[in-house]
Structures are given as structure tokens and as C-alpha cells.
Amino acid sequence: MVRGLRKFNRKRGNVTLMWVVALPVFMIIFMFLGSLVVVWMEHAIAEKAADAGSLAATKKMDGYVSAELQTIMSRILQENADNQTFIDPYQYVLGNSGLKRGIIKNAVFNNKEELIKEVRKYVEQNGAEPSRIYFFADGRIQVEAKVKFTPLIWAEEFANKYVKGTGFGPTRDYGSWWPNRKPLEVSFE
């Protein structure tokens, strides 16, 4: 019986046995860590794409808001000439909060399809899919983009999962014209 116990005390065989048992555990741990790295990289891709989309949307909105302002101010100047009166067009527009909200609504809803097309173009060029546009969250245009998650382990459980990223455009004065209520949301689905 003592001789049988000596066989189990051999360190050389035990180390090999422990290595064979631990190898699959180490592989699972490394695959899990690799999946975390994939999530991190895909999140960075989604954020980069969302930033590009929000910058493109802000640039387009600059043009649309400027055009709306010019239309209203030209109309006021024409009325001044017709009625022999003088109303300052800048004061009339910028001093009227209801008119400013109307300008924003018109700029967004009259040009919604062009804005969606522009955001989609830039987000897809940067390797993601567009998800949503929020107009004037904190005075800026926010774009949400998503990238399909491709894990190294348990791919079936994460078959239709996405990693999302958010990008914010620069702050614009006209962004504060929309009241601090719920931002205007445009969805791509």
C-alpha cells in the first residue's frame, strides 16, 4: 500500500496532469479577454463613425438654418419696403422664441431625408450603421451608430447584438433655440 501512494506523489506526472487540465481553462479565459478587446475596438469604430455623422449633420443644418433665416429676413425687408416702415429683421427673428423654434422645426423636418442620407453616408464610410439622430441634445446634434458584435467565444448567444457609440457635433447657437425639452429624434429603423 505504501508503494501505491508513492506513485501519486511523483511531481513530474502531476505537473503534466495539471497542465492538461488547466489548458482549456486558460484558453477560455484568453478567448474571453479577446472578446473584450473586440468590444473595445468595435466601440471605438462606432464612436468614430458617430462623430463623423454628427459633424456632417451639423454642417448640413448650418446651411438649412441659414437658408431659413435668410428667407424670413428677406421677407421682413420686403415688407419694410412695401409698408414704408422699419422693423429690424435680426431683432424680429432673434427676439422671438416661437419663431426660432419654428425655424428649427422647419430646418429639421423639411430636410429630414437629406439629413438622414448625409449621416448614413458618413457613418457607413467609417464602418458602422446609423441608429439615431438626436437634434439639439445640449445644443448639439448627437448621432448614435452601431457595429455588429463578433465575439471570439459564444457567437450563438451574441448573434444579433450590436456595440453602440455616440458622437456629438459642435455646439451651435441655434441649438439653444430648441427648448430644453426632449430632443427631436430621427430613427433609422
Q: How would you describe what is shown here?
A:
With 189 residues, the protein is of the alpha+beta class. It has 5 helices and 4 strands. A 4-stranded antiparallel sheet has the order 3-2-1-4. The termini are far apart. The model has no long low-confidence stretch (mean pLDDT 84).
Gross morphology is: rod-shaped
Beta-strand percent range: 15-25%
Could you estimate the helical fraction of the residues in percent? 55-70%
Order of helices and strands: HHHHHEEEE
In order across it, which strands form the biggest sheet?
3-2-1-4
Q: Total number of helical segments? A: 5
In whole angstroms, the N-to-C terminal distance is: 73 Å
Largest sheet: 4 strands, antiparallel
- Please state the structural category: alpha+beta
| Total strands | 4
Radius of gyration, rounded?
A: 29 Å
- The poorly predicted ranges are none
Write the layout of secondary structure elements.
Blueprint (H helix, E strand, L loop, with lengths): L1 H7 L2 H73 L5 H6 L2 H13 L2 H14 L3 E9 L2 E9 L13 E7 L15 E4 L2
Antiparallel strand pairs: 1-2, 1-4, 2-3
Helix pairs in contact: 2-4, 2-5
Which key phrases capture this entry?
60% helix; 189 residues; 5 helices; 4-stranded antiparallel sheet; single chain; alpha+beta
Quick summary:
The chain crosses the membrane at residues 20-41. With 189 residues, the protein is an alpha+beta fold.
